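Module 6 notes. Inverse folding takes a fixed backbone as the condition and produces residue identities as the prediction. Think of it as a translation problem where the source language is geometry and the target language is the twenty amino acids. Below is one complete input and output pair. Work through it position by position during the lab.
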């Protein structure tokens, strides 16, 4: 069985739509779904945003299912000007001997990723993080998920699509108000209340949100290619 983890349901929407024979778990496993892709068994988990939530969600996935490869898929920000919105990449600094056996890179570049505790939303912060870490991209989950996978001996790949360019200035507070961090659902009332008092953030938020469906489509296409390239379905439900 192949494990696929997303921080939020928005990232997972197209991939879940491609699954056959979907079955969602019941509480406390409502964030877990199993299905098939070309007869390959897949377990999908919505693990939540940020290190702590992602670690807990990953632990739950690996407790319930025995997976031979864990792929974390989702959004990331560019830490360098030459990396552009829409680019899909694999986190090179989290590929080990085990995951490299599964991953056939093809046209997907390998870039270094850093994991931050909050959204990095302006060029100055991105430049400082790139200088401190040597990374090309930033997200909020890869380090934590990789640590859990490593502790269980599960090969791990982080596949990311860039949603914001180096020069972008994100409305960080509006994004925080808009997204429920556990499952990534939109929270219209907190968002509306925030925008009433911060109207200057409406335009930047719309520009950021407008590209997300295209970013998700590019990510899903590459993720499906990766899953299709893997051999046999293998694996069974876990302990």
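Target side of the pair, the amino acids:
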């Amino acid at each position: 069985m192949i494990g696929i983890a997303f921080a939020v349901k928005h990232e997972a929407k197209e991939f879940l739509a491609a699954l056959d024979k979907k079955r969602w778990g019941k509480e406390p496993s409502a964030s877990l779904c199993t299905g098939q892709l070309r007869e390959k068994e897949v377990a999908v988990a919505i693990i939540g945003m940020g290190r702590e939530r992602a670690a807990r969600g990953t632990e739950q996935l690996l407790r319930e299912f025995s997976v031979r490869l864990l792929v974390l898929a989702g959004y990331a920000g560019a830490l360098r000007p030459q990396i552009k919105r829409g680019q899909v990449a694999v986190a090179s600094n989290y590929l080990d001997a085990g995951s490299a056996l599964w991953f056939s890179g093809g046209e997907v570049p390998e870039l270094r990723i850093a994991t931050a505790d909050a959204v990095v939303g302006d060029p100055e912060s991105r430049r400082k993080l790139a200088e401190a870490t040597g990374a090309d991209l930033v997200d909020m989950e890869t380090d934590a998920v990789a640590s859990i996978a490593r502790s269980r001996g599960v090969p791990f790949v982080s596949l990311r699509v860039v949603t914001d360019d180096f020069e972008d200035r994100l409305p960080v507070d509006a994004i925080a108000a808009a997204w429920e961090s556990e499952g990534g659902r939109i929270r219209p009332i907190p968002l509306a209340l925030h925008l009433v008092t911060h109207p200057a953030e409406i335009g930047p938020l719309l520009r950021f949100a407008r590209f997300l469906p295209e970013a998700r489509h590019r990510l899903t296409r590459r993720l499906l290619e990766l899953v299709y390239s893997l051999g046999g379905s293998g694996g069974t439900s876990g302990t």
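Reference fact for the lab report: The first strand starts at residue 2 and ends at 6.
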